[in-house]
Amino acid sequence: MKYDTIIIGAGLGGLTAGAKLAKEGKKVLVIEQHDKPGGCATTFKRKVFTMEVGLHEMDGLDAADMKTKVFNDLGVFDEVEFLKLPEFYRFIQGDYQFTMPHNPEKAMADLIADFPAEEEGIKTYFAKLAEKPMRRLPDDHVELSVGEYLDSIINNDTLKLVLLGNLGYFHDDPYTLSLSYYAVAQGSYFRGGGNFIKAGSQKLSDYLASFIEKNGGKVLLKHMAKEILVKDNKAAGVRYYKNSTPDDIIEDYADDVIANNSLPGVASMLPEEYGNLLSKQFNNTRIGASLLTLYLGFKKPLKEIGSKYYSYFLYDESVKTQTDILGNNKGSFEKRSFTFVDYSQVDSALAPEGKSVGSVCCIDYPEDWENLSTEEYKNKKEEVAQIFIGKLDKLIPGLSDQIEYYEVGTSLTVGRYILTPQSAVYGFAQTPEYFMKPKIETLENLHFASAWTKIGGGFSGAIFSGYMCAFGMLRRR
Ligand SMILES: Cc1cc2nc3c(=O)[nH]c(=O)nc-3n(C[C@H](O)[C@H](O)[C@H](O)COP(=O)(O)OP(=O)(O)OC[C@H]3O[C@@H](n4cnc5c(N)ncnc54)[C@H](O)[C@@H]3O)c2cc1C
Questions:
Q1: Core-most of 9, 135, 245, 414, by most CB within 10 Å?
Q2: What is residue 359's predicted lDDT score, i.e. its pLDDT?
Q3: Residue having the nearest C-alpha atom to atom 47 of ligand 1
């Protein structure tokens, strides 16, 4: 069968690209190995609870945010409801607590009230986040890490940690996170606020998938792409199979192929010489971190037992300075810093009336879990669940009595569903070196729409990359 475009993967990048192309009259085929569209942007049911796989908060959706334009173009706002979140986050370390508002003026004022000696540094930090992103890098540009930048403008270590409360949204270490990348992404949370998708991110993914189909495209679930066919130095199509019949190889052809799967995954699907040319460009590029989640279903909305915040970031007391963050992320789960999201603080619709859903999330690495027997893996997950439940009980007394269901999804679980190397959820690590690297090039009609492009990961990164990819293709043709 011949299509205008075949897309490998129905994550947000693939779905957004597919939706835009289908809207503009292109015949699109999306091949997705999972039984639902969305990649990280999915939900799953346990008992009466809808567990949100990925979304804690999505930045922006203000008038200046490009996602607003994208969603208007694709009719998303007509069918998907976005809930504004009450605050950015509640930072907690030992006895110190700080509520970070989304409004930058209020954030500055509240921070200055707590750290008066750092007024200048606080203002400099917010001015940096408000800067317009550089369109073209000047020749003499030296890209700093966030860690280096904070050290250069602020003395107080606690303040630096407060500002880095949500670092896990981007990376595992402030000293290897590009300042320019961070400033744009973090700036959007402060400019436009945070949003949750009512009833979970699956709503957005399902909407985009059905939009593709309504516009004449096809989204094939439970199908695995295996090879990208190349003819005359051009991508010619995709070889794939239905998961239930792996021996029956299907071949479909297209003028363009879009990869929503990881770049290393794409390299392994190309004929050797093209795969080598592609992988040469990112051979020494660091791959980003993964995440572990403890999914929780509660008998009551946690608001009723004293929970006051949507998003808590708990830093372990052993993290004294920015230099301790990476070691903490790689250290024991007893001390690992984490975030807790209480979805009952908004009308999330993840649980029936009178119940609620929450989730603990922390940076995680596959090596924490590899080489364990099935029994050891299961026991370790239970151990980790109990560690976090114990900590949550101290944060919100009585919480453990309200638990009706819990389950741990490790980085290995994530990897199994999205098939990324090292189970990475944000693509390549956004290091200063990566920021300075040129865009990765390959066959002229093989395109990338995912967290693995220069735009980076997160809901916003994936959505932008998908839209930009489709837009670029339409313009070229
Ligand atoms: C636990 C967790 C919490 C997160 N929290 C947030 C948050 O609060 N805010 C935020 O902005 N971001 C968050 N993220 C990150 C964000 O969800 C991702 O960066 C983003 O959704 C990635 O989108 P993507 O388009 O790159 O594709 P992915 O979501 O990686 O999906 C890729 C798709 O391709 C499919 N695929 C891969 N290989 C093949 C193949 N060979 N054949 C067929 N299909 C294939 C996979 O099955 C998958 O569906 C979180 C992620 C996780 C896991």
A1: 9
A2: 98
A3: 418
Cα 417 to ligand 1 centroid, rounded to whole Å: 9
* Amino acid type, 8: I
Query: What is the phi/psi pair of residue 213, to 5°?
Result: -70, -40
Task: Give 448's pLDDT tier (boundaries 50, 70, 90).
Answer: very high
Whether residue 457 contacts residue 427, with contact meaning beta carbons closer than 8 Å, is answered with yes
Tell me: pLDDT of 414 over 80.
yes
- What does CATH list as the number for 89-198+290-364+370-409? 3.90.660.50
Looking at residue 133, what is its pLDDT?
84
User: Would you state the pLDDT for residue 221?
Assistant: 98
Distance (angstroms) between ligand 1 centre and the Cα of 16 equals: 13
Neighbours of 437 (CB within 10 A): 13
Ligand 1 center from residue 425 Cα (angstroms):
6
The 311-314 sheet, strands edge to edge: 96-100, 89-93, 311-314, 338-342, 356-364, 290-298, 403-409
Ligand 1 centroid to Cα of residue 261, in Å, is 9
Contacts of 424 (CB under 8 A, 6+ apart): 262, 287, 288, 289, 290, 451
- The residue contributing the CA closest to ligand 1 atom 41 is 225
> Where on the phi/psi map is residue 332: left (φ > 0), alpha (ψ -120 to 50), or beta?
beta
Residue 136's pLDDT band (boundaries 50, 70, 90)?
confident
User: How many degrees, rounded to 5, is the angle at CA 453 between CA 452 and CA 455?
Assistant: 115
- Run of H or E including 70: helix 66-73
Q: Does residue 477 register a pLDDT over 80? A: no
CA of 10 to the centre of ligand 1 (A): 9
| Ligand 1 centroid to residue 106 C-alpha, Å | 33
pLDDT for 155-185, tens place per residue? 999 999 999 999 999 999 999 999 999 999 9
Is residue 352 very low, low, confident or very high in pLDDT (cuts 50, 70, 90)? very high
| Alpha helices in 225-369, H assignment, sequence order | 263-269, 272-280, 325-330
Task: Sort residue 306 into left (φ over 0), alpha (ψ -120 to 50) or beta.
Answer: left
Atom number of ligand 1 nearest to Cα 465: 25
* Residues flanking ligand 1, CB < 6 Å: 8-14, 31-34, 39-41, 54-58, 224-225, 260-261, 265, 291, 293, 361, 414, 418-420, 425-426, 450-451, 457-460, 462
The CATH number assigned to the domain with range 2-42+200-284+430-476 reads: 3.50.50.60
Distance 11 CA to ligand 1 centre (A): 5
Q: What is the pTM of this model?
A: 0.98
Does the structure show a pLDDT above 90 at 190? yes
Given the CA of residue 269, which atom of ligand 1 is nearest to it?
A: 41
Alpha carbons within 13 angstroms on the beta-carbon side of residue 219 total 28
